[in-house]
Amino acid sequence: QVQLVESGGGLVQPGGSLRLSCAASVHIFRLYAMGWYRQAPGKQRELVAQISSAYKTIYETNYADSVKGRFTISRDNATNTVYLQMNTLRPEDTAIYYCHAGRGPQNFWGQGTQVTVSS
Q1: Strand 95-103 vs strand 113-117: parallel, antiparallel, or unpaired?
Q2: Half-sphere exposure for 36 (CA within 13 Å, toward CB)
Q3: Which positions ≥6 away from 69 have C-beta within 8 Å?
Q4: I want to staple 60 with a disulfide (CB 3.0 to 4.6 A). Which of 52, 77, 81, 84 is the partner?
Q5: 3-state SS track over the chain
């Protein structure tokens, strides 16, 4: 059974930064593609950022247009952790952020961590 535990959310002022972490208890973490999604009140869950598994020599990343240049996803296979560095935060980034792990037909989700951007 895969467990994903997010941390690092909180309240931050516009223009501020946060770093989210997702600790994964999964066999052979490096074989899973990892991602961050978010869901704002009244909206559908959307992709924020993805990072490929270790099947490829160089990790590939993918970002939503709204966060390109502000957010960075990374992973540490030694500690089974994926990170989301969020800079220059905006009020519209306010949402619950979810960690996702995927491998073939398998998909796993964390419980989410709240990020609120407000003055």
Answers
A1: antiparallel
A2: 34
A3: none
A4: 52
A5: CCEEEEECCEEECCCCCEEEEEEEECCCHHHCEEEEEEECCCCCCEEEEEECCCCCCCCCEEECCCCCCCEEEEEECCCCEEEEEECCCCHHHCEEEEEEEEECCEEEECCCEEEEECC
Distance separating alpha carbons of residues 89 and 92, to the nearest angstrom:
8
Burial of residue 45, with CB atoms counted within 10 A of its CB: 0-12 exposed, 13-18 middle, 19 or more buried:
middle
- Phi and psi angles of residue 29, each rounded to the nearest 5 degrees, phi first: -50, -40
Amino acid at 86: M
